[in-house]
Amino acid sequence: MANDEMLVSCAQPKIEPGSVLDAMVALGPVKASVYLSALVEEVQNCLDRCDFTTHTSDILRVREQIHALKNVLAPTGSSELLGACDQLGRDVYAGTDPVTLERRYKAIAKAGMKLIKQFKGSLSNV
């Protein structure tokens, strides 16, 4: 494999043991569910604000959006999602096409939202 080839993880994101969300279970399903609902809303806010293709979307603004998404997804502890955010940030500086960046950003956000919703659904079994 050449040095300039990127390794891509196909692993499914998961809530990591010891993460904030993993610890939320100790609060009980009702309190944890409220927190998770707020987290889902924050991910949706990131999706709603995502626009990398307009003339006002400079590198700094795009990086800020990626950083905000990573902060919202941080409580999952998911190395797959957080690593994807890091790679997306590097790709901004590498000059990746804004349409591609936006599509990947939205895919990461949607994967995070799905993971959080699945975790929330599993709380009823606790």
Topology, element by element:
Layout: H1 20-24, H2 29-49, H3 59-73, H4 79-93, H5 98-122
Structural description of this entry:
- By secondary structure, this protein is an all-alpha fold.
- The chain has one domain (20-125).
- It is built from five helices and no strands.
- The protein has helices at 20-24, 29-49, 59-73, 79-93, 98-122.
- Helix 2 packs antiparallel against helix 3.
Structure characteristics:
126 residues; mainly alpha; disordered N terminus
Radius of gyration equals 16 Å
Q: Which runs of at least 5 residues are low in confidence (pLDDT < 50)?
A: 1-8
The number of domains: 1
Order of helices and strands: HHHHH
- Helix share bin: 55-70%
Percent of residues in β-strands: under 5%
Distance between the termini: 45 Å
Instruction: Indicate the overall shape.
Output: elongated
What is the number of helices?
A: 5
Which class do the helix and strand fractions yield? mainly alpha
Sheet having the most strands: none
- What's the total count of β strands? 0
Give the overall average pLDDT. Answer: 87
